[in-house]
Design brief:
Structural class: alpha+beta
Helix content: 25-40%
Strand content: 25-35%
Number of helices: 4
């Protein structure tokens, strides 16, 4: 059977980009069981309330929900178990050094399959204040309005 190519997104954390300023992103593999992979391939996962944390010099993903596989038996997995992230030692050391700064956290942004392997994109993030969120919304609204005006002008309907 030929190996699948490309990137297939299973779940994304849209709220993370709203609540956090993403400073840097990393791609990590995940240590998964067979039924977890089958459930992910079915497109079932949730990153709501998920976060990554260091323990014993390794990085673990907490509170990510992968529902039990429907055709699984007694070998099914626990839906919210802690999963180990697979990163190079250099990347882990670099991340841990940056996490020592106050106010930084690791937030999962996406879960996807890359060339058949389950991956998670984690972001080194700093929490946004409410006024930062309002500024981002205002910038986005202004950009949309500019795009609309340019579109109207291109069609000959200058208003």
């Amino acid at each position: 059977m030929p190996r699948e190519k490309g990137r297939k997104v299973v779940a994304s954390n849209k709220k993370a980009r709203h609540d956090y300023a993403i400073l840097d992103t990393y791609e990590a593999g995940m240590a998964l069981t067979g039924t977890e992979v089958k459930s992910l391939r079915a497109g079932r996962a949730s990153l709501v309330d998920a976060f990554a944390q260091e323990r014993d010099g390794e990085i673990y993903l907490h509170a990510m929900h992968i529902p039990e596989y429907a055709q699984g038996t007694w070998t099914n997995h626990e839906p919210r178990r802690t999963r180990k992230l697979l990163l190079n030692r250099i990347e882990i050391d670099r991340l841990l050094g940056k996490l020592k700064e106050s106010g930084l956290t690791l937030v999962p942004l996406q879960v996807y399959f890359s060339d058949g392997w389950a991956k998670v994109e984690i972001g080194l993030a700093r929490g946004k204040k409410s006024y930062d969120k309002r500024q981002d919304l205002a910038k986005r609204d202004a950009a949309k309005e500019i795009a609309r005006a340019v579109g109207r002008r291109g069609k000959g309907r200058a208003e």
